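Students often ask why we bother predicting the structure of a whole assembly rather than each chain alone. The short answer is interfaces. A chain on its own may look different once its partners are present, and contacts between molecules only exist in the joint model. In this exercise we take four input lines together and write out one structure for the complete complex. Read the inputs first and try to guess which parts will touch.
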Amino acid sequence: MKKLISICGSDGDDERLAGYALEVAYKIGRLVAQRDGVIVCGGRSGVMESACRGAKEEGGITVGILPYGKDEANPFVDIAIPTNIGNVRNYLVSSTGDVTIAIGGRWGTLNETAFRMISQKPLILVKGTGGVVDDIINHSILRDVEYSYHVVNSAEEAVEKAFELSSV
Amino acid sequence: MKKLISICGSDGDDERLAGYALEVAYKIGRLVAQRDGVIVCGGRSGVMESACRGAKEEGGITVGILPYGKDEANPFVDIAIPTNIGNVRNYLVSSTGDVTIAIGGRWGTLNETAFRMISQKPLILVKGTGGVVDDIINHSILRDVEYSYHVVNSAEEAVEKAFELSSV
Amino acid sequence: MKKLISICGSDGDDERLAGYALEVAYKIGRLVAQRDGVIVCGGRSGVMESACRGAKEEGGITVGILPYGKDEANPFVDIAIPTNIGNVRNYLVSSTGDVTIAIGGRWGTLNETAFRMISQKPLILVKGTGGVVDDIINHSILRDVEYSYHVVNSAEEAVEKAFELSSV
Amino acid sequence: MKKLISICGSDGDDERLAGYALEVAYKIGRLVAQRDGVIVCGGRSGVMESACRGAKEEGGITVGILPYGKDEANPFVDIAIPTNIGNVRNYLVSSTGDVTIAIGGRWGTLNETAFRMISQKPLILVKGTGGVVDDIINHSILRDVEYSYHVVNSAEEAVEKAFELSSV
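Now the answer. The structure tokens for the assembled complex follow.
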């Protein structure tokens, strides 16, 4: 069975999406594939596409769990799952990974992050990637409530932590 | 067709859940029922039960969208929907209301709030009820991203706003 | 807590939908409401609308679990649940009832019927209403596999059986 | 993007499940993998396991969409998706394939088959594999209602047809 790493973050419509977040996603895609892990994501543009592109450059496998049809997939998705349930598919992206990594993001990423916390499954937030990820970190959102997230500072650290957590 | 008002907030397991949050939920239940609205919620204890209790005291109708079976329902639920999909049912609670009102809450409420924002449907946050609601308000979470939430200060204001928004 | 009776059957697009099936649905709606039960259905036209109309004529409550938005609801739905998950909502219609009654129907009704069987919750098929219901009865589909359906011959018998089963 | 072929059929609990059905599933797994297709299924035992085993023997990729957790997966699943939504996951198995092939089966397979028909996406039934598949074929269930299924007589014919349909 393959290790699955879910990547959550903004699609390309997000005007605040920084080049740094895309770079982190791309590196994570490469590093996960190098370790024979599978990238799982929402299958669309932005952070998702960068992670898939990185994985494909290393010969990895990518899974895109799409809101509606396969035509929404970015060009680097191998296994496109057309759910036809719209944003409800977020919970599948969030819960499929052995570990989930969040990068920047808006309401969709917040939705996925919160769902992950409810499930009490491992979540990694990459600091400095902006959006809701930095909001959660900087304002210690619900920090006094049972949680299972880890804050890391780079793509390398994220993948190191992800494989460490997924082998527990 | 009835006006549906969804109520999101902590169940009774939340140690941080304040008496004030429960009181607000109870009053909202009463006020919604007085105006012939239907209370929709996750059907369990805490904020959900208080809202249902208030509604029933005024002869209103209550809907509980439950994680698993009907035995999870609080005693004030009329229409118990046993979804058997666990916390994925959160998205149904969140999206069913013509307007959704969030009170206090933890990761589940954050999940429902974020889902509501993605759907761009009206959401009301009751200030001072603690938990994730006050976290979002006080730290202006994603305030620069398209959103459709309204901040109110009391049960009365919440219901006034809810009926105003639901008649648009 | 109210008794919930789910009604499954064709919408008005079904050219094979017989007047008799609509009449049965209408009568069931009336009889369920007379006993203070709630009609749950897919919220649309055809069999669903007839059941809701019957229930409303007796002052009952009706719930419509819709594929997408509230604008899809027939005029006799009180509580319209806009799921936005398309036909995946079928499983909710099927599993919400304490008892589910199937009348005529096509692939959607077959979908709901089969899902009900997997859940091993009580199901009533009204003989003579055509479509997939009569197909299942006449050809003894999967009759040698664990099942929990009951065959009845009229609206009256269906409701009698439904309340008998729901009080177990 | 990979071609995805969904396989529906009984798990190992089905006492009526014939050796022939398992053999067909195994061959389909091999043939799909030989053509670089991906096997998608419910991830469990019986027909699902046979298809996955066949695919793995040819170095293919297999996806298992599981009712609850990853521990339910058969040993030949590469990408295990733990949905935690129970049998509601059937609709995902059914709709993910570019083409879906049904083999034998009980209520779950009937559920998946009916859902596929509603979606009007290509479905192949392998004649002679027993269960609900032969019930649908032999009794021409809903044959006069819009449908998109194809009846084939062997694993070879099934895969030939599947790739023909998926390249449209």
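Check your guess against this: The radius of gyration of chain D is 14 Å.
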